[in-house]
Amino acid sequence: MQSLPRTMRTPISRALLMGGVCALLCSACKGSGSSSTTTPSTPTTPTPITETFSGTLPVGGAQFYSFGIATAGTVNVTLVSVSIGDQPSDVSLTVGIGTPSGITCSSTNQSAVTAGTTPQVTGSQQPGVYCVTVQDVGPLLPAPAAFTVTIAHP
Predict the structure, then answer these.
(1) pLDDT-based confidence at 45, cuts 50/70/90?
(2) How far apart are the C-alpha atoms of 141 and 83, rounded to whole Å?
(3) Closest Cα to residue 48, out of 140, 150, 134?
(4) Which end of the chain has fewer CB atoms within 10 angstroms, the N or the C?
(5) Burial (Cβ within 10 Å: 0-12, 13-18, ≥19) of residue 4
């Protein structure tokens, strides 16, 4: 078969190419009465931040630690350990979540707890600055005690 001269092939090739492109575009289009489906997005949960607060609590005293949260969510506070000298202690201390007030922590959600591995004080908080307080109420400590608290928050 005899081929077309080059000057005739180019317009035909362009016309075929444009026709193919139009056909593809039109087949992808849907009429105004048809519906399309989309996959709903799953909301992401922020990865919790865990902060550690350690210190020495004097007999009858209190210590606090301030932290900020950017997203509303649950704050979990765990009194992880208490030791007097080199010995672990099961003394009960008051642990609370509150808001900083000058050089103190105004805690509104507090409980008397002993050291453990699960959260002992939990609160739902909005974005802002908060504090955790550890107190020897009573006093119950026979001597100053080293303590460690973890604070998990959004």
Answers:
(1) low
(2) 10
(3) 150
(4) N
(5) exposed
Given a contact cutoff of 8 angstroms between Cβ atoms, the answer to whether 63 and 81 are in contact is: no
- Ordered by where they begin, the domains of the chain are 49-153 (2.60.120.380)
Q: Report which secondary-structure segment, H or E, holds 148.
A: strand 145-153
Structure tokens at 102: 């000058």
Is residue 138 very low, low, confident or very high in pLDDT (cuts 50, 70, 90)?
confident
The whole-number average pLDDT for the span 100-125 is: 94
Helices (H), the chain: 6-28
Rounded to an integer, what distance in angstroms lies between the CA atom of residue 145 and that of residue 85?
Answer: 7
Eight-class DSSP state of 85: T
Tell me how far apart the alpha carbons of residues 136 and 108 are, in angstroms, rounded to a whole number: 16
Three-state secondary-structure class, residue 40: coil
> Three-state DSSP class for 36?
coil
| Bridge partners, residue 94, by sequence | 112, 135
Strands (E), 37-92: 49-57, 62-69, 73-84, 87-88
Residue 98 CB neighbour total at 10 angstroms:
19
